[in-house]
Amino acid sequence: MARRGLLPSHCSWAGNKIHSRTDEIPRQWYNIVPDLPARPPPPLHPKTFKPLVPGDLSPLLARELIMQEVSDERFIDIPDEVIDIYSLWRPTPLIRARRLEKLLDTPARIYYKYEGNSPAGSHKPNSAVPQAWYNAQEGIRRVVTETGAGQWGCSLAFASSLFGLDCEVWQVRASYDQKPYRKLMMETWGAKVHHSPSILTEAGRKILSQDPSSPGSLGIAISEAVEVATARSDTKYCLGSVLNHVLLHQTVIGEECLKQLEEMGETPDVIIGCTGGGSNFAGLTFPFIREKMEGKINPVIRAVEPTACPSLTRGIYAYDFGDTAGMTPLMKMHTLGHDFIPDPIHAGGLRYHGMAPLLSHIYELGFMEALAIPQTECFEAALSFARTQGVIPAPEPTHAIAAVIREAKLCRESGESKVILMAMCGHGHFDLTSYDKYLQGTLKDLTFDGSLEIQEKVRSSLSSIPQVPR
Ligand SMILES: *Cc1c(COP(=O)(O)O)cnc(C)c1O
Asked: How does it assemble (predicted)?
């Protein structure tokens, strides 16, 4: 454990600057693909249904990111400049939740890896920074993207500002109207923010002609950003989750955490995280799954999703589009159908119809399990967390906290002192309206696990997924 002195042991004076522990930031990202017993099914061209070749993606993504997307290297070097920027908030703390343990009267030892200290307040800058860096290296002038509640848009806006890139963000209309602070953050970092659907793209105009007051969805916003990126050669698209290279960048979380747990002499029995597109979960767990495949440890790996958007637990494993308009490649993933529009729950980052293809594949291989929890239980858990550990969680990781509390209560009953590790992927300082609703008693669960309504809704949206010939 860290020695106590006048300065924390990781600080050293150099002029007036305190350096953080860049030597403790991993030098490489971990690519799990070559270690898996079976290869993930390839993405397919949306028109021909033929396996994608890297060139198909080049109008859309930076060259180096495409290479990472299809890479067979187990470890990929993190550029020095990216490590230097990571050091603004990395390494991130691994904290034992002793006060929460005490509240729950559990013999379990609960640890959380906290990503909320990043400039944008979540894990997302871990991928935004390298994505912006590679684009800048390749002479790209402008990056475009979509955002839901605004976490990813903020992260890319922040990263773009560091490298002088123009950044344009299509934000889901409902959040654009309800959450002005995230938009203002993006603008403070120099980005231009449009609401989605917008009149600026064909995809947006089409939706608006059908429903002028459409609240939008992530799938629609992706269609808009992709359309803009493909129209201009100086512009590329960036995605904040789902794709292999995004999951890859996030493994910096798990690699750091493996070392931190080792230093504490702990081995996790259960690892829990929330899944929207799967990136924070993959980021923490992939390095642990590697150790599990090597037979060194044997933790249960558990993903938690909202009952209102249950892609892993209620979706099907099939080829589907990543966006609503059907412009992206087809990816084999757990999906609720690309035109599934989830209830307006507060965990905006978990309202995506699909799951990362790589994580879906790993789920099929049996390396992990999944469950769905309704949002009121999540907010109740979040208050317990905030009132013991201090941090007010973003609505997304409240799902992980609720599952951790369930596990810790089981430990109380069985007397087992399991080590529970949780991905605590962001703070909720800009999501206090949802806490207000919970505290006022007006936050409701519209969807219950496996209810007839959700089954019917999923059945109806699954009927429009593309029929891919075998
Ligand atoms: C975006 C976001 C998520 C969901 O995305 P994943 O790719 O599943 O991690 C979860 N939590 C927070 C705080 C987010 O910003």
From this structure: Tetramer of two alpha and two beta chains.
| Rounded distance from Cα 408 to ligand 1 centre (Å) | 23
Residue nearest to ligand 1 atom 15, measured at CA: 151
Q: Rounded CA gap, 111 and 104, in Å?
A: 14
Residues 87-112: tens digit of each pLDDT: 999 999 999 999 999 999 999 999 99
Lowest mean pLDDT among 16-20, 140-144, 168-172, 368-372: 16-20
Å from CA of 15 to ligand 1 middle: 37
6, pLDDT greater than 60: no
Q: In testing the pocket of ligand 1, which one of 118, 241, 252 has its CB within 8 Å of the most ligand atoms? A: 241
Q: What would the pLDDT profile of 55-74 be if each residue is shown by its tens digit?
A: 999 999 999 999 999 999 99
C-alpha 53/C-alpha 404 separation (Å) is 41
Rg (CA), the chain: 21
Q: Which residue has the tokens 């970092």?
A: 189
Among 242, 425, 427, 434, the mutation site with the greatest number of ligand 1 atoms within 8 A of its Cβ is 425
Longest dimension (CA), the chain: 67
- Asked if residue 10 has pLDDT above 50, the reply is no
Contact between residue 461 and residue 323 where contact means Cβ atoms under 8 Å apart: no
Sketch out the chain's domains with CATH numbers.
33-75+123-244 (3.40.50.1100), 94-121+251-462 (3.40.50.1100)
Closest of 157, 148, 90, 91 to residue 120, by C-alpha: 157
Confirm whether pTM is higher than 0.70: yes
Residues 283-294 have a mean pLDDT of 98
How far away, in angstroms, is 349 Cα from ligand 1 center? 5
